[in-house]
Design a protein that fits this description.
about 140 residues, alpha+beta, Cytidine Deaminase, domain 2, 5-stranded mixed sheet, 5 helices, zinc ion binding, zinc, Cyt_deam_tetra, Cytidine deaminase
């Protein structure tokens, strides 16, 4: 079993937050994922004036890992500048369930508050491939 250096992952997420493009909300979010091969992929949220085209930091990081051929995500860190840790949106939770269901999820803020959780804790009773398989029986 690979040990996860959550401190290094948190630092990578904090650095990614600085690269976020958030001219409308001014709510910068950074994320970093650690893959089984030891690589870290980062992402910041990227906003668009056509709001539905905006993408969250978590999905940028996860999609970057997948685009590079990585399929085993060990951990994900998400950082915000909020009083408490912020929880990922529903779309990001669904993507986590699909792409990294067994990973550890570290939620943290810039003041150092942290919460370690999992995709299944964030999205209990999730929709997935099992339901699609049932639909085709």
């Amino acid at each position: 079993m690979t040990l996860v250096d959550y401190e290094a992952l948190a630092t990578a997420a904090q650095n990614a937050r600085n690269l976020a493009y958030a001219p409308y909300s001014h709510f910068q979010v950074g994320a970093a994922v650690l893959t089984a091969s030891g690589k870290i992929f980062c992402g910041g949220n990227i906003e668009n004036a056509a709001y539905p085209l905006t993408i969250c930091a978590e999905r940028v990081a996860l999609y970057s890992a997948y685009a590079a051929g990585e399929r085993e995500i060990l951990a994900l860190a998400v950082v915000t500048d909020t009083d408490d840790v912020a929880s990922p949106c529903g779309a990001c939770r669904q993507v986590m369930i699909e792409l990294s269901p067994q990973c550890g999820v570290l939620l943290l803020n810039m003041q150092g508050h942290q919460r370690l959780t999992t995709p299944h804790e964030l999205l209990p009773h999730s929709f997935g491939a099992t339901q699609l398989d049932e639909a085709h029986r």
